[in-house]
Amino acid sequence: SSYRVGIVGATGAVGQELIGLLLSRSFPLAELRLLASARSAGRQLEVGGKKLTVQEAKPEAFDGLDIALFAAEGAIAKALAPEAAKRGCLVLDKSSAFRMDPKVPLVIPEINLAATRNHAGIIASPNCSTAIALMGLYPLHRKFGVKRVFFSTYQSVSGTGADAIDELEAQTQAYVKGAAIEKKVYPYQIFQNLIPHIDSFGADGYTGEETKMREESRKIMGLPALQVSATCVRVPVVRAHSVTVNAEFEQPVDVAAAREVLAAFPGAQLLDDPANKVYPTPLDFSRQVKCGVGRIRRDTAFENGLTFWVSGDNLWKGAALNSIQIAEAMIREGIALRPRELATA
Ligand code: 2RA
């Protein structure tokens, strides 16, 4: 069968990737409805050789849809996702609005697809840095049991959005021309620099991004007591995030065993041959379905420690692809798109 799919935030960086991936993955579409703010309504987008007109995202815009892919900021998801679910849509939301809501499954299909069986109309996708980090950590946890983990991230500017991509480009051009470098999106120059600040600072000195990595990793892996400490840094890379993971396990983990586990995990591509300078880089893993894992070595700071490096596309596995993979897997596994109570209504 085929499905009537709506995209909320269709004109944004992630929305554009959703359109491309639905087409390139031949998602069974009966209809594709592009929804965005009133400001963008009326714009025409070229989709698969057809011109589609963007409609305003408002409650009645969800009538008749089976799936609503939300790629908008939290406030819009908070306002409209319940409206869409009420109208019988399965909402797949990439924002942080519902991720920690106990009634909302937070899902990476390769890890906890079963959690989708208890949805009440809304399913959340994790923060991009969490999804990418867990493509390396989760298969190792499943085999060796993780106790404590440190994340250090190297996050591309596309995670902020199209305006940040433009900012890096403009600062690069200004540098080449010897012109003044302007800062609009970030508090510091991002060109030739690093900014250890993503999202907002909490009272404990951790940023929202760092708190998300801790809380979301615990929820997705079902490890409420997992010890996590993250440092999330913006780097002058256009696309794809990278993460250094230092993890302590219940038992010693040798590199060969770790490589075997990662090579067998569907969400990861093992790329680990340091003698030949082979390891993942963000440039190589942009627009890749899998996340690259390499630099695997015993961690010298832990008993039973292992450290490794992951690079993954933050717009794909970190956002658009993960949402689409949830829908694909639910359809493949015959998991109800509508919550039980609605289905009988
Ligand atoms: C970022 N993870 O990279 C956040 C949102 N995509 O800015």
UniProtKB/TrEMBL annotation:
It catalyses: L-aspartate 4-semialdehyde + phosphate + NADP(+) = 4-phospho-L-aspartate + NADPH + H(+). Its EC number is 1.2.1.11. Keywords: Amino-acid biosynthesis, Diaminopimelate biosynthesis, Lysine biosynthesis, Methionine biosynthesis, NADP, Oxidoreductase, Threonine biosynthesis. Substrate binds at residues 155, 234. NADP(+) binds at residues 11-14, 39-40, 158-159, 314. It comes from the Bacteria. One of its GO terms (molecular function) is NAD binding. Pathway: Amino-acid biosynthesis; L-lysine biosynthesis via DAP pathway; (S)-tetrahydrodipicolinate from L-aspartate: step 2/4; Amino-acid biosynthesis; L-methionine biosynthesis via de novo pathway; L-homoserine from L-aspartate: step 2/3; Amino-acid biosynthesis; L-threonine biosynthesis; L-threonine from L-aspartate: step 2/5. HAMAP family: ASADH. Belongs to the aspartate-semialdehyde dehydrogenase family. This is Aspartate-semialdehyde dehydrogenase. The lineage of its organism: Bacteria, Pseudomonadati, Verrucomicrobiota, Opitutia, Opitutales.
